[in-house]
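[INFO] parsing input record for Alkylation response protein AidB-like acyl-CoA dehydrogenase
[DEBUG] input buffer:
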Amino acid sequence: MDFAWDETDEAYRAELREVIADLPRDWWENYAPHGPASPQVMDNARGFNAELARRDLVVRHWPSAYGGQDADAWKQIVISEEMWSLGEPRSSLYLGANWAGPAIMKFGTEAQKQKYLRAIAEAKLLWCQGFSEPEAGTDLGNMKTRADPVPGGYVLNGSKVWTSYAARADIMFLLARIGGKGKGGVSCFLIPTDTPGIEIRPIRGVHSEWDFNEVFFSDAFVPSDALLGEEGNGWAIVQTIIHYERIGAARYEKSARGLDHLVGILKARGQWDDPVCRAECAAARSLVEAARLLTYRVIDGRAKQREPGAETYLARYAMIEADHAVANITSTWLPDLLIDGADGHARAQFNSAITAGIAAGAAEVQLNMVSGRHLGLPRGA
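[DEBUG] output buffer:
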């Protein structure tokens, strides 16, 4: 692997930073600490994303036929690093750009591609993901939400939980069951969140009042063209999505810049002279860089058209460890920064770390995948 960024990568990063420079002046104080699903960030994202789209910055790594510039896969991680280092000012546009779009490219009809891919490239849609359920959690094989075939489409009944962005998103990427058991019958749908029969209720969390939502489906009708792929073939789509989703958000870069911010404060306060403090910061930095390099390994394979493997799960778990390590620096050495209004940058990183082992795949699930697909251990070992 060549570890140096090329000129096109650096130029792309510079263009992104020009748009970032126009974020609200109080970004760290009143936007980032509340997370990318907050009303402040989601409302601001509409205009921010429109400017990204005006400059053709959203999906340069996509084919030109769908609004991209046929650039290599490294452009995806460049924009992810720049955006996530700030707490993701795109809000959930990144879901569309990172994994919903690629899934539609691979499994969608031509009509679906024309409808959704251009809209993502033009930053017109904010997405949410209807996967987890109250009695199944992240065990998608046990989900119960049903999509019953009726003339002209399907009727949805069931519920989802922990659905980030749902309250203000435009489109949900939904998993529902059309018959079958376990992984059989799982099907994917692309549905507007304002579809009659869909009710969204917020769940207040310790890290955010707006991040989590419950979603209820009560005889919600969706037309046949809302189905992505074939009936009952959703598990193959899920497997494609996972490898894009797990490392699509460059959380390690948010941790890295958050750590730099904390070290500056520790030095200013004279705490940097404590060898234990320095050792803990060094350990956190090593975890951040391990997560970065493991992510780059995945992107390198993608750029070389290799099939994804267990390294995706290794990279995802490394990000969780890095997030937690930096958050622990704050809570151990600088706990006063976590008081509301004290330091928005520190609070934003800490709040994000609270969900690091849950969002985009629970930590325990990643370890299970590593044990089986990387270490080759038998189930239950």
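[INFO] Strands lie at 127-130, 146-150, 153-160, 171-177, 186-192, 198-203, 212-223, 227-228.
[INFO] shutting down worker
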